[in-house]
Fold these 2 entries.
Entry 1:
Amino acid sequence: MVKIRLKWRGEVWETEAEPQECLHTVLERLQLPVGTEILTAKVGKTIHELSAPIDSHSNFELLGWESPEGKYVFWHSSAHILAEAILSFWPKAKLTIGPPIENGFYYDIDFEGNGPTPEDFPKIEKKFLELASQPEYFVRRRVSREEALAYYKDNPYKTELIYELEGEEIFFYESGNFVDLCRGPHLWHSGPIKAVKVLSLAGAYWRGDSQKPQLTRVYATSFPSPALLEEYLHQIEEAARRDHRLLGKQLDLFSFHEEGPGFPFWHPKGMRLLNTLQEWLRAKLLSHGYEEIKTPIILTQRLWEQSGHYENYRENMYFTQIDEEPYAVKPMNCPGSTIVYRTHIRSYRDLPLRLFEFGLVHRHELSGVLTGLFRVRAFTQDDAHIFCTPEQIQDEIASLLNLIEEVYAAFGFKEREIFLSTRPEKYIGSLSLWSQAEEALESALKTVGMSYQVNPGEGAFYGPKIDFVVRDSLRRRWQLGTIQLDFSMPQRFGLTYIGSDGQPHTPVMIHRAILGSFERFIGVLLEHTAGELPLWLAPIQVKVIPISEKLFDYAREVAAALREAAFRVEVDYTNEKLAKKIRLAEQEKVPIIWILGAREAETRSISIRDRRLRQQVQGVPLSEAIQTLKREALPPGLSEN
RNA sequence: GCCCCCUUAGCUCAGCGGUAGAGCAACUGAUUUGUAAUCAGUAGGUCGGCGGUUCAAAUCCGUCAGGGGGCUCCA
């Protein structure tokens, strides 16, 4: 007998088992909810399947739906059932891989040109539930290489996988009439799987390589109850409502047109937002020791040859000709910045020199990847280049980290991750310079006390970098800020400064962006706020609603007072009822609505309807209301004085 | 770029082989309104472009363009 200890939702059981007895039989004996709530088990950090025999292990943590491991196993098994359901309709389809993912699972399948369409989803789901409810038991069987290869003699993908398992054990998992090459782990049986939804179809290259055959990826998700599936579908709907492309249209901020795919058209309200954002950041940077520059959008091809972009980035660049000379549209701002640097002989006393540029860059992105403001072909970077000595790197990075943190906090981004990428295999510059730079970055991060992850070997060939990633409302990760050290460009462009020794030295260049691009940042911000922008950023801050035509004169007066105080105001002069005007203003997501009736006009006051507080205040004196608004509309990080 | 899907009035969408429809918006008029849609009328479309099948195409087929979902979370 083996002594074992089980932990399930905080409670502990101690019992004994026969050697080689399966874990699930022990659980059944204890009348624990195995095959329903208990999905899998863990010993230390390794998953131990319920159907696996207990050997020397003794300490089991039982896991349900609430654990990541439980979901992982649940969806992994679901992928097998999905494949089985699909094979019942497309028996000749060749399976490849079918892993669990963040919110479900997929299976990549080669249908050889005759795959399913979305109309087939219901019948696949029906078949899936039929199979799952039987239920199907997942039985692991070790097979020889020869047997595995023979079984998959018509499936080049599985064959490729088997060849890669040289020297390792090979397993088949059998469930119902379905067999799949799989390393597991799986559920004991399909009983817990009560709801499924086939979500979408997508093309996916075998092994992510566009040179290899394209497979059909079937995305799906499954749950232990129909109610949980419903909840998930509602979440997806809510995320869709927050889609910045939709909000951009509804709020009349920007649009896209076939006359310029991937190039945003900014409407008046979008410009108000974009300009407010830029003015705020500009003021912040100027107060942090930066100077602003602006460099040309079109520069000679020779410059891009010198910078290395022509060699390494040509695919993404647009070219043109001026007076028969070849030119290129800038995909990055850095070469322009170096030209400004070179306009003077620089002394070590001038460093660090911080030059920022809200630079409009153009990049040729593949047509298939364009996505609203998230992925465009022209965008404005909040770019800056800091020229400094190697000794100054650490201090410079530390203050930069604080600045970036300050900026993100202003927009309420709480969830963020920092990645430090270090020297790749292919690199330029001396080893000592690299280690000095990496140490500088790392100790800067430690100085300001920010937690980070290291991505070894992920740095650019010209220097190490720090990336900032925030999560949007769809829980997608977006890299916003980046700090990149560059040893290469200063050399390529022959940049120097005169040191205290009177000799010329090569400065280090720090490329950095905080928001990344204004365009994409606005997209992220819209999804983050569901379009309910903070008062200081809102394109229309106050909507003035006179109750009837008789109040139009007073409305004009109020609006003038607001404009005088530098607010962005709109008056609703339409001949509609109050309820209608309020409805429209609410749909425009205006933060503040001022309502003017006869009572207000008489007392020179206004009534406030506040989107943010979801409450109303009646009869506030006009001058007082404007003073309050002035306080409330201050951009973050600024005090009233 | 590649795979699947979509494209009908300014917007949201219905129609899916027999000669274009709704709601909202716009315009005109009535109404003068107190916290999320007042009523009536008018106007508005080469059904994304091009080509084909058919007596007949928004509807079926092809092609191009634009848009959406994806394209190394590895048995």
Entry 2:
Amino acid sequence: MNSSDIFKAFKLKKTTCRKAIIDMMLKEQKPLSEHEIKNQLMNEFDRTTFYRSFKTLEQYKVIHKIVLDKQEVKYALGHRQGQHVHFFCNSCQNVQCIETTQSYSFVLPKGYTVDETEILIKGICNQCRLVAL
Amino acid sequence: MNSSDIFKAFKLKKTTCRKAIIDMMLKEQKPLSEHEIKNQLMNEFDRTTFYRSFKTLEQYKVIHKIVLDKQEVKYALGHRQGQHVHFFCNSCQNVQCIETTQSYSFVLPKGYTVDETEILIKGICNQCRLVAL
DNA sequence: GTTGCATTTGCAACAATGTTGCAAATATAA
DNA sequence: TTATATTTGCAACATTGTTGCAAATGCAAC
């Protein structure tokens, strides 16, 4: 999977700035914040260009948002589907999309209906736990 | 429950700006975003003062954050405890803290441990559902 | 009530962040 | 290679948030 495939799949022009964003996300293999990406690309591109490219990728759902605590928002490639579980490691601060076939249901007041569920779990990932031992 | 009780309980000075924030939250009886509160109080107080007062209330956990999608963050009085479920109504855009005795557990990869869970459910609240009928 | 003191407030100046219009550059399809 | 719609970079601007500091305020002790 490279950026060209993505641009074809979404029928988007492969511009240098968009490509730089996608490439960085493909390379890092973990959700990144807009800032993390922006700071890397600030030398290469104009602020305006970055904002516009990033917004486009979000609009077309090439990337999806993961909302964490403390104003921190990360982005991952692909689009969210159905019930989505994200894991935030309090130690390494990394975020993961947890794939699960499990479907969770919640107790709600009478008459409430559910469209979408977002679950954020904070804890310690296996790698950090092993390091701590 | 009035603002004076809150200031006593948290051993915070009852300043005019802090009081205005608390009073607004008590009156509205639903989580509000920092913007919603700020805009209301902009005429009355300096921007700086508002930011500082708001930050203090958050620091002392007089209010707690509810992170929604699209950069939208709301705040509710009181502090979050244990597993917390928030409900966002896609129709009226209001947020509620759902009180539940239920404890939910999630399937995670091997070795992962959980500290805290944040659950955001988006759907239609009972009131909006009834209106739609 | 008055006083004293730590805290908070408002202001000015500034820094950072994001937005808009527009001309030049670029991507893609013909 | 050309034509055309889209994207880019720039300048100017708007908004948002931060800092230092003097004046005002809250509150506790008297």
